[in-house]
Specification:
The structure is a homotetramer.
Chain A: H1 3-8, E1 26-28, E2 31-33, E3 39-43, H2 50-63, E4 67-69, H3 87-100, E5 103-107, H4 114-120, E6 123-126, H5 134-142, E7 147-150, H6 157-169, E8 175-179, H7 195-204, E9 209-211, H8 213-217, H9 223-233, E10 237-241, H10 259-281
Parallel strand pairs in A: 3-4, 3-10, 4-5, 5-6, 6-7, 7-8, 8-9, 9-10
Antiparallel strand pairs in A: 1-2
Helix pairs in contact in A: 2-3, 2-10, 5-6, 9-10
C-alpha cells in the first residue's frame, strides 16, 4: 500500500494492511471468508414464512451459495412496509441452517436485539442505515459474532473504515465490508455501484469485502453483470437477493432473482470464478495484481 | 431490452437496441470497434513533443494497444495548465500513425477546429466538458469521423444518450460512448466509476462503450483493477493514459501509467480478455449474459 | 398549492396543506410554534455538566431564545467522541427549565429510551441519522410529545415528508420539520443548506419548519448569515448551537457560537424579524407571499 | 476574513478580500454593481422576436429592473431546443437598450463570437456549461467588458474562484459571480440553491455576487422566495427570467415569471430591500454582519 493512503487513513490504521496483517480470514462453519473461497450469500430480503425460506435455502445451496440471508427484523424503507417476523423469523432461519448446512446472516437493528439475534445467526449484519450507530456496533462487536458491515448510502470510504475500526477496537476483528451502492445525482439505477471502492478497499485493508449487486442496481436484469463486476474488482463474495416469486415478494421484489435466474447467474459466473481462483492460486500471475510496484 | 427501459428512454430511441439494430460496429483502419475486438486506446494525456509521443506509440502498440490517444488541444482543468501544441500536436500524431499503424483519437474542443482535427484524427473525441455542447456535436457529427463521446461529470445516463442521439440525428451513427467517472460526495478517488452504467448501456444501446480507468480513478495504482472491472461490465475497450515519465508529465501524471506498468496491466488483463472472447465467440455460453429472460 | 405538488406527494397527503388544514400550530409551554412566533432554540451540542448548561440557558434566554437544546444521548459522529451524560444530562436539562422557564428539546436515539426522554423533554428530537428509523418514530409519536424531525443527510423532500407522515399516522400531529443541510459534492462548508427546501416545505405542508444554521454550515462565522437566510425562506424558527467556550467544547465547537456572538446574531436578526412579523401581521402585504396566483 | 479561508483559497488570492481591496464596484452605464445598489437583471431566457423583447424590457424597467437579459446565442439544454437568433438577437437587444436605457447582458458561448457579442452587450455572460472553458474566459476577459460568471452545475466554490481568478489574471477585474443552483441527489426542484455559498462568497471575495432564482428553482412559484433568500444571503442583485407568456416561451417557460408575477415579486421584495439598504448605509448596524469577530 502506498504511503499516501496510509497517511490519509491514519486514524483507522487497525483496518489497514500492515506487515503484521495482510488479510483477515474469517471462519464461519466450514467457510473461510476472505481466504481463497469466493462466498455467495443468497436468500430473500425478508423471511416471510417457513415454506418460502426453506425452498429458497435448498435451491440456492444447490446453485452454489454457502450462506443464507434473510431479514427477521427489517429496516423499513417506508413506514408502511413489512417489518419482519422477528423471533419467529430467526427460528425459521435456524431450521434452514439445520436442514441445509448453510450459515445464516441476518440483520440486527437495535442494540437490545443483539443477544437474541446473535443466538441464532452465524454472522450479524449491520445495515446501511445503521453503519454509524456506534452503540449498536459496540454491542454487535462484543457478541463475538462476525459482522457484515454494509456501507451507508452516503458514507465515504473513510466513514466506512471508521465504523470498521470501531468494531476492531471493541475486540472483534471479524469484519466483512459490504459495498451496496451509494446515492448520487444519477438515479437511473437505484444506487451507483462503487466498484472502484471495492478495489481500493482490497488494496488498503486486510478485511474481506463483498459486493451486493441487488441493492446496488435495484434492477434484477443487471444483477449478473454487477456480480461479475464485483468479482473482477477483487471482492471475496456476493450477497444476492433470491425469492421463489419475486413479483409477489413482500419487499425488494424488483431487485430479487427467481430460482432460474439465480441458477443462470451462478452458471454464468462459473468461468470467471475459475479464472479468479487460478489467479489467487498462482497458476496465473499478475491478473489480480495490486500494482504496488507503480505506487 | 425491457419495455420499461424503452419507455424511459423513448426520446432517444435511435440509440436503443431494436429489431433493426443489435449492435453498431465501427470500422477504424483495420479495427472493428463494437464488434468482438476489445480495443485498447493508450497514450499520453497531452502530446508534449515528438520524442514523447513516438516512444509512447511504439511501446503501447507492442503491448497490444490499437489506437493512440494524445491531446493536441487540451481542455485545461486549471487556467495555468498546459494548453496543448495545437496543429503541431496533430502533425506529430499523424507521424506516429504513419510509423506505427495505430489509429489516432484526439479531442476537438471548438466548433471551428473540427475541420482541422478531422483532417488528422481517425476518431474525434468530445470531452466531458463538451458533452452538451450541441454546436460542437453537430459540427463533429457532420465531419463524418467516428465520435468518442465522453460522459459529462454530472451527466445522467439519459443526458449521455441525448447527446449520442443528437449525433445520430446529424447523420453520423459511429458513436462510441465512454464512461470516465462521475462526480459524487465521495472524493476518495478522483471520480466514482459507474461500472453498472457501462453494463446498462450495453444492455440497452447498440453503441460501443469503452471505459476510462485513468480519469475514473485518478490514481495509477487502481488502473489495472478498473480495466478489469470495465471488461467485466461488458465494455468494448479501454482508454488509458500512458506516459514515458508520469512524474514529470505536463498533465495528469498522477493517473498515467509508465511503460512497465502498462505492460503489466496488459499482461494481467490477458486471461480475462481470453475469457471474454470465449464468451463472445460462444465457446462458453451465458457468462456475459444480458439476462433478458428475467427482465 | 399547485396540483402538481399535490400529485407528486400524494402518498404523504396528510402533511400537505389542505382546505382543512392551512397550518399546524404546536403549543409548547407558552409558545406557539408554527404560529406567528419565530422561535429560537439555542444551547450546546451536548450537556457536559451543570455549570455549562445553566450558564448557557440563562444567557440564551436573555438574548431571546425560547427553547433550550442540549444532547443527553449523543449520536456520535465518530466512535471516539463523547456519548453524552444520559439520564444525568436529562436531569440537568430539567433543572435548567425550572430555573429559566425555557422549554427543553433533546434527542432520543433509541426506541427503548423514549419513555425516559419523554419524561424530561418538552420536545423530542429525532436526529438526522434516525430520520428513517420507523420503530423509533413510532415510539416517539406515541409518547405524545411534539417531535422535532431533522432531515437526513441525503433525504429528499419526499423522504422527509414520508417520515413526517408516519408520525401523523401514529396519532401525533405535532411535528416540526428541520432543515440542517444535505450532503453534496461541494464540501467547502460542512453541508449544503437547502434554503429553497424550507421555502418549498412552507408552501406545501402545514407543519412548522425550522432551520439549523450550525449543522448546515459547520462554520461559526456563517451562522448569522444562515439564520437570516432561514428567516427569509419562511422558517418558523432556528436551532443554534451555543457554548460558553466553543474552542473547548466536547463536540461541535467549530460550529458553536460563544455568548457574545449569539448576542450579536440575535441583535442583528432583530430588524429582519420585525419585518417578518409585520408581513405576517398583514401590516405589509405580499412580502412573504407564496405566489399561488402564478402557480 | 479568517486565516483558514485565506489558506484554503491561497491559489486564487486575487479574488479574495485583502487590505487593498474590500469590494469591487463595477460601473455599467449609470449602475454601480457591487456597491450599495441592489441590481435586478430581468428578461426572457431567449430573445425570440422584437415584440417579445421590447414588451418585456419596458415592463421590467417599470417594475424596477436595471439590466435586461436575453439570450441571442443559446446553450441548448437539449439538442432539439431553440438555438437563438444570433446576430439578429443582438440587434434587438441593442434597440431595447436604446429605447429603455436598460443595460444589456447576454451570453457568449464561443471564443469566436466574443468580438461580436462585446460590440452589443454591456456585460458578457459566461454560462454554467462554459465556466471552465478557459479559452472563452480569456477572450471574454480581454474584451474589456464586465463578465457575469455563472457557477457550473457541479463547480465547487474553489472551482468558481479559479475561473474568476483567471479572468482577473487576464486583465479584467470586473467579474460578477452568479449562484444558480447546483446538482445534487435531491431533484425535487431543478437544482439545489446554494444560498450559504453566496454568504461565503460575500465574506471572502471582493467581487459582486448575484443570485439566479429562476435556474436555482426551476419552478416559478418559488422565485419570489428565492429572491428574498438571495438578498438575505448578502447578494448584490438578482437575475430573473421574465416572459410575456411563459406557458408559450420557446425555452425555460416553467421557470419564467409573467409580467404580473414579476411586478408582485418586485413589490414583495421592496421592504426587504429597504431594510438591506438601511443596513448597508449604517442606519442599522450589525444586521448584515460578517461576524469577523467570532472567526
Amino acid at each position: 500500500m502506498r504511503t499516501s493512503w496510509q497517511e490519509r487513513f491514519a486514524d483507522t490504521s487497525d483496518v489497514l494492511i500492515s506487515e503484521q496483517r495482510r488479510s483477515t480470514v474469517i471462519p464461519v462453519l466450514d467457510l473461510a471468508i476472505g481466504g481463497n473461497d469466493f462466498v455467495t450469500i443468497a436468500g430473500p430480503c425478508a423471511v416471510e414464512n417457513e415454506f418460502q425460506l426453506m425452498a429458497t435455502a435448498q435451491r440456492v445451496r444447490r446453485a452454489g451459495a454457502r450462506v443464507l440471508r434473510g431479514g427477521a427484523f427489517k429496516p423499513r424503507s417506508s413506514p408502511y412496509s413489512f417489518q419482519g417476523l422477528g423471533r419467529d423469523g430467526l427460528r425459521i432461519l435456524a431450521r434452514a441452517r439445520k436442514e441445509t448446512g448453510l450459515a445464516i446472516v441476518t440483520e440486527v437493528m437495535s442494540e437490545c436485539d443483539v443477544p437474541l439475534v446473535a443466538e441464532y445467526a452465524d454472522i450479524l449484519q449491520i445495515g446501511s442505515r445503521s453503519m454509524e450507530n456506534y452503540s449498536l456496533l459496540e454491542a454487535a462487536a462484543r457478541s463475538g459474532r462476525p459482522i457484515l458491515l454494509k456501507r451507508g448510502l452516503v458514507a465515504t470510504i473513510a466513514d466506512l473504515l471508521r465504523s470498521a475500526q470501531f468494531v476492531l477496537q471493541n475486540g472483534n476483528t471479524n469484519v466483512i465490508l459490504c459495498e451496496r451502492g451509494i446515492r448520487t445525482f444519477d438515479t437511473t439505477l437505484r444506487n451507483t455501484f462503487d466498484a472502484a471502492g471495492i478495489a481500493l478497499l482490497k488494496q488498503i485493508t486486510h478485511l474481506p469485502v463483498i459486493a451486493d449487486p441487488s441493492h446496488a442496481s435495484g434492477h434484477r436484469e443487471l444483477i449478473a453483470a454487477l456480480a461479475r463486476i464485483g468479482l473482477a474488482a477483487g471482492a471475496d463474495g456476493l450477497i444476492v437477493e433470491v425469492h421463489p416469486d419475486p413479483d409477489n415478494a413482500m419487499s425488494d421484489g424488483e431487485q430479487s432473482l427467481d430460482f432460474a435466474a439465480f441458477d443462470a447467474m451462478m452458471a454464468g459466473l462459473e468461468p470467471w470464478l475459475a479464472l479468479r481462483n487460478k489467479c489467487l492460486d498462482g497458476v496465473i500471475s499478475g491478473a489480480l495484481q495490486v500494482m504496488e510496484a507503480v505506487g
